[in-house]
Every structure is written in C-alpha cells, then in structure tokens.
Q: What sequence folds into this?
C-alpha cells in the first residue's frame, strides 16, 4: 500500500513569480498545509520551505528555483529515509487544460525542468506526480508564444478559477490518498470536475485586453 511521507509543490521563489502558471505546485502545497494545519518555515539545510503535519508527513516547497528542485527533494528524502515511491510532487502541466488533474507514478519528465532535476537527484522516476493543468500556448489567444514564456505569465481569469477549483478538488481527494486508496482517488481526480475549454483566437477584444493587463511577468526568465 502506498503511504505518502513527503508532499512537494514545485514553483519559483519570489514575488514576481508568485502568480504565474509555473507556480501552481506552490499554490497546491500552501493549500495542503492550510488544510493539514501545518506551517511552512524555511530550512536552509533542505534548500526549501518545510512544514510537518501529523503522522510524520512533510511538505516541501524548494527555494532553489524550478530547474534545481531536485536538490531540495533529494536532500530531505535522504535525511528522513523517504523512498521515491513515498513522494508526491505537484506541478504545472502544459498538456492538460486548466482545471484538469491527473495522478500518475513514474514516467518521463516531458521537458519539465523541475521533474527532470528531481529524477536526476533521486536517481529514480518512481515518485508520484499530481499534474495540474495550465493549458498550452498553442490553445491560447497567442499560440506563437513559447512555452517557457507562457508558464511565466499569470493565467487568465477563467483559467485561474478552473485551476483554483482543481486544487480544491485535489484537497477533497487527499484523504483517499492518505489512506493509500490510489485507485479510488485516481477515479475521482480524473473524472470530476471538468476542465474549462481551451482559449482560442476568436476571443473578443475585451478578453484580450484583460489578458494583456494581467500578464505582467517578471523580466527574468528562470528556466521552466
């Protein structure tokens, strides 16, 4: 039976990144900590913000920037003798629409630098992933935008609502995951609620203007 001992949310540190699509893993981790009554505190020896909940469960937000996330995950996992199979990593997923969630164990990193580094540092891809959909620029009103730029922009208003609903849904399903009931949790996560439809280039000018106003990303392009 799967027993999760480490929950990891991926993102980039700093106020400039806080509202961007790439930080949805941090959003989930903050929501999980609040639900579990745990409080994050910075622990430099683990290169991250760490919170401890009941039953020896720990939550981690790496403070190394996304592309070096594995350093924090591997350091903490080795210190507490946590196996890759006992780790759940929440991250943004370009290949899922906003509002969609998928749970899986193992597999490739699909170009996600945070996952890539975690695999390298753990020496294993056997950890679990909570994939939180953010959509892909090809389905947006600016399909020419590069994914590396897209993830460092805030989501549009309707996307944000869908992502927040997905995170709330994941919190509702957490008790099943905590009990090791992976099959039932997966069924719940993968079927309800439905994600929003992808944006398209026929959005009205008001929507486009709103998007432009919201998309004030930092000038620094920390890798995805």
A:
């Amino acid at each position: 039976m799967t027993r999760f001992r480490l929950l990891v949310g991926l993102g980039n540190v700093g106020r400039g990144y806080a509202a961007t699509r790439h930080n949805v893993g941090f959003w989930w981790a903050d929501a999980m900590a609040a639900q579990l009554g745990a409080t994050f505190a910075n622990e430099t020896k683990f290169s991250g913000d760490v919170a401890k909940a009941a039953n020896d469960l720990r939550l981690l937000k790496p403070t190394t920037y996304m592309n070096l996330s594995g350093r924090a995950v591997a350091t903490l996992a080795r210190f507490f003798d946590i196996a890759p199979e006992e780790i759940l990593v929440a991250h943004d997923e370009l290949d899922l629409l906003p509002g969609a969630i998928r749970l899986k164990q193992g597999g490739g990193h699909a170009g996600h630098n945070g996952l890539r580094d975690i695999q390298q540092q753990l020496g294993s891809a056997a950890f679990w992933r909570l994939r939180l959909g953010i959509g892909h620029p090809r389905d947006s009103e600016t399909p020419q935008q590069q994914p590396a730029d897209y993830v460092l922009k805030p989501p549009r208003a309707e996307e944000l609502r869908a992502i927040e609903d997905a995170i709330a849904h994941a919190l509702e399903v957490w008790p099943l995951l905590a009990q090791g009931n992976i099959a039932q949790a997966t069924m719940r996560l993968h079927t309800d609620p439905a994600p929003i439809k992808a944006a398209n280039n026929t959005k009205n000018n008001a929507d486009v203007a709103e998007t432009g106003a919201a998309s004030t990303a930092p000038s620094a392009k920390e890798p995805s």
Remarks:
- The beta strands are 6-9, 41-43, 48-52, 58-62, 87-93, 101-105, 128-133.
- The two ends are 33 Å apart (CA to CA).
- Residues 201-221 have pLDDT under 50 and may be disordered.
